[in-house]
Amino acid sequence: MSYRKPTNRHKKKKDQELNLVPILDAVFILIFFLLMSAQFVKIYEIGSDVPIVSNSEPPKNKKKPLALTVSITKRGFSLFTGVPSRRIRTISKTQDGQYDLPKLHDYLVSIKKRNLSEETIVLEPIVDLTYEEIVKIMDEIRILKKTDDALFRKDKDGLDIQLKTLFSKIMFGNLMS
Fold it and tell me: What is the rounded (10 degree) CA torsion for 165, 166, 169, 172?
């Protein structure tokens, strides 16, 4: 009898496992560099309410609403008040064609002095405005400057509190036009 050499056919081969450690290292390093190269930007938001549309009658108040509206036209600002609205002031553009924001702010401060509890104003841009122009106008409407007179109103306990904003609730009146 002759000697036969054993074959590998009868031996089972062990499955080789993939070494995932180098791949995971590369992924974690990539994530680290992506996080380090990302720019973190602060996004600011200016709150604005949408007008309420309803078929029901508004509640009866003894005090007439101020219903202050600033209409932005090609010529400047038109200010309206009351229901039905009536024009109380027109502020033209400056000589160089820019909106006269300081004049608008000063007039709104004078209105706020007479109506300390009023917080709402309606903004009606009738012309196309850039985003920057709308933000500047909204800032003039909302913010009391340090150079403005201090305004105080009584709280529910009868204590004087200083107002920090001019008209904080800005609503857009003509969103669909």
Answer: -140
Q: Could you tell me if residue 164 is inside a domain?
A: yes
Residues 74-121 have pLDDT tens digits of 999 999 998 788 999 999 999 999 999 999 999 999 999 998 888 889
Per-residue tokens: 148:
């403005």
Cα angle: 69, vertex 75, 81; to 5 degrees = 15
- Supply the pTM of this predicted model: 0.66
The neighbouring-strand residues paired with 140 are: none
The tally of domains found in the chain comes to 1
Cβ atoms within 10 Å of 40's Cβ, excluding its own = 5
Is position 122 within any domain? yes
Answer whether residue 79 is part of any domain.
yes
DSSP-derived secondary structure letter, 52: P
